[in-house]
Amino acid sequence: MPALAQARRGRGAGLRGLNRGRGDVDTSTPMGSMVFTVRTAMAQMEPEIARERSTDSVPKHRTRGHGQG
């Protein structure tokens, strides 16, 4: 669980996201905590995957004689 949510939960409080388009997320419940953790992990993963794809494509473009990009 992300540090902010964990710190709040340790004090007996929770985070609650309202009207997020796919339902409310309340970290004070087990299901809400799981959903929050999964969404946070996905959000952290997306830029890492984009960076990895960019890094992997540079050598491929160079071997084909293309410029970067």
What does this structure look like?
The protein is 61% helix and 6% strand. It is mainly alpha-helical and 69 residues long. The chain has a two-stranded antiparallel sheet. A hairpin with a 7-residue loop joins strand 1 and strand 2 (25-26). The longest helix has 34 residues, at 30-63. The model has no long low-confidence stretch (mean pLDDT 77).
Unreliable segments of 5+ consecutive residues: none
What percent of residues are in strands?
Answer: 5-15%
Which range best describes the helical content: under 10%, 10-25%, 25-40%, 40-55%, 55-70% or over 70%? 55-70%
Strand-pairing-aware structural class = mainly alpha
Q: What's the helix count?
A: 2
Largest sheet: 2 strands, antiparallel
Element order: H for helix, E for strand: HEEH
Tell me, rounded to a whole number, the average pLDDT. Answer: 77
Number of strands: 2
What would the principal axes of the Cα set say about the shape?
elongated
Spatially, the strands of the biggest sheet line up as: 1-2
Q: Terminal Cα separation, in Å?
A: 36 Å
- Indicate the radius of gyration in whole angstroms: 19 Å
Keyword list:
69 residues, 2 helices
Q: Layout of SSEs?
A:
Elements lengths: L2 H8 L5 E2 L7 E2 L3 H34 L6
Antiparallel strand pairs: 1-2
Entry summary:
This protein has 69 residues and is mainly α.
